[in-house]
């Protein structure tokens, strides 16, 4: 049985920088509050007209170049996003056409911040079962257009940003690659972090009342999300370690979903990790939902923080609630 190994990685963030100071022009907030509560200094926003599949293209090109592959080599596109271009069709199909991939399958994954790790787990099954040799896994998000940039939405709006990351997962005969993946959900908390409308349960799906009430914006009960995140992250990381006979001391690098620096600090403390065992870039990009893990992993690789043979753990928690981990031998 082949191993499923990350053979190429790339990311892209839009050039427009939105600082904390910039946000304070639209809403009652300030740099000190945002940095102290979240660790975020700035995030990136797309220009009007740039959608989630557009943002993914440079990330995919970089990952494909990094893997040394052509479009015809890819067997399947897995596109994780919580901010798809359209209600239908999925962003994976749009990317297939925009990048002129052959008419391969394009599968969208809608599990928000955990989407990329879920996507890796799907790719892993296809590779290990020798169905495909190379699978593309993308996390791409345009969150800026889902933000209420008024004081009403300040608790959520200051956190999220736009960006895209992509990997190629390939069949490998050596002993590196994904060792295991672990997926969870609990829909009892669906409304703690959600976009209420447009909804299939409302006719018409979008109307003036929805717009006036701001139900089309992402809404979050920050305290409740925080409370669950600091429990579920360590739990799912330990699950991945236990399943493979490792302890937290064995981790060379933990790349958590970049949700909030305080959440990362609590994970670090709970697992007893040294500073150099956990990666963070939230100060630059904020929370980019499904894109955050591949963006952070790509930057960690580019900064030589991941070396061949390292034990790398990826973990995510978010809306759903969903949470997941992947443990890899690099
Ligand atoms: O991918 C998973 C996604 N989400 C997360 O991981 C988020 C998890 N949650 C959090 O990170 C935190 O709950 C937040 C950063 C969202 C909020 O921090 P908090 O310490 O839980 O603050 P809070 O919501 O309890 O608000 C404290 C105060 C409130 O004012 P009062 O009632 O004490 O007067 C808020 O109105 O801070 C106020 N506030 C703000 N002030 C300035 C809320 N947002 C802002 C803001 N700027 N942007």
Q: What does this molecule look like?
A:
The chain is an alpha/beta fold. The protein is 33% helix and 23% strand. The chain has 11 helices and 13 strands. The chain has helices at residues 20-23, 31-38, 52-67, 91-98, 115-128, 154-157, 208-213, 222-243, 261-271, 282-285, 292-302; strands at residues 3-12, 17-19, 42-44, 76-80, 105-109, 134-141, 163-172, 177-185, 193-194, 219-220, 253-256, 311-318, 322-329. The chain has a 5-stranded mixed sheet, with helices on both faces. α4 (91-98) links the parallel β4 (76-80) and β5. The longest helix has 22 residues, at 222-243. The model has no long low-confidence stretch (mean pLDDT 97). Oxa(dethia)-CoA (UT7) is lined by residues 29, 33-34, 37-38, 113, 154-155, 158, 220, 222-223, 225-226, 229, 259-260, 263, 287, 318.
What's the structural blueprint in terms of helices and strands?
Blueprint: E1 3-12, E2 17-19, H1 20-23, H2 31-38, E3 42-44, H3 52-67, E4 76-80, H4 91-98, E5 105-109, H5 115-128, E6 134-141, H6 154-157, E7 163-172, E8 177-185, E9 193-194, H7 208-213, E10 219-220, H8 222-243, E11 253-256, H9 261-271, H10 282-285, H11 292-302, E12 311-318, E13 322-329
Parallel strand pairs: 4-5, 4-6, 11-12
Antiparallel strand pairs: 1-7, 2-3, 6-7, 8-13, 9-10, 12-13
Helix pairs in contact: 3-4, 8-9
The structure holds oxa(dethia)-CoA.
